[in-house]
């Protein structure tokens, strides 16, 4: 067992960074009327509108009941609508409304501002290294 205090471990620092990022993004999203995670769902629909609910659960890596709750809330806010699949009446496709489409630019801007803040005071080389290391750590954990 290591004698290193837990607060000095990389894992602990990752938790602190994750919480800080989550709080920053959550606050910014609230100004747009969104909850954390909804912007990721929207990003997938901006990339390919009309995904099925099962495709969304796979892409978001969440359970179907979690997606259903998210879709219900977003549909109630007028950001998207669900329509039965013509090829499989048991499935639904999810489509953006005009209101959902209109959030694309503000959400992208928000993410770019957060990215800029994350990378403040890092050189170009440090940014490249940081990205590579994060990708490696994610790969190690999955």
Automatic annotation (TrEMBL):
The keyword Cell inner membrane does not apply. InterPro entries: ArsR-like_HTH (IPR011991), HTH_MarR-typ (IPR000835), WH-like_DNA-bd_sf (IPR036388), WH_DNA-bd_sf (IPR036390). Transmembrane segments: none annotated. GO terms for molecular function: DNA binding; DNA-binding transcription factor activity. Residues 7-139 form the HTH marR-type domain. Keywords: DNA-binding, Transcription, Transcription regulation. This is MarR family transcriptional regulator.
């Amino acid at each position: 067992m290591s004698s290193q205090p837990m607060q000095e471990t990389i894992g602990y620092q990752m938790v602190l960074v994750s919480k800080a990022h989550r709080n920053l993004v959550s606050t910014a999203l609230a100004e747009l009327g969104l909850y954390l995670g909804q912007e990721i769902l929207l990003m997938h629909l901006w990339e390919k509108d009309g995904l099925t609910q099962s495709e969304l659960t796979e892409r978001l890596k969440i359970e179907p009941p979690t997606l259903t709750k998210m879709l219900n809330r977003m549909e109630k806010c007028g950001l998207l609508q669900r329509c039965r699949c013509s090829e499989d009446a048991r499935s639904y496709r999810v489509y953006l409304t005009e209101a959902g489409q209109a959030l694309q630019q503000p959400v992208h801007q928000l993410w770019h501002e957060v990215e800029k803040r994350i990378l403040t005071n890092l050189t170009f080389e440090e940014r490249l290294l940081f990205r590579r290391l994060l990708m490696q750590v994610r790969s190690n954990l999955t």
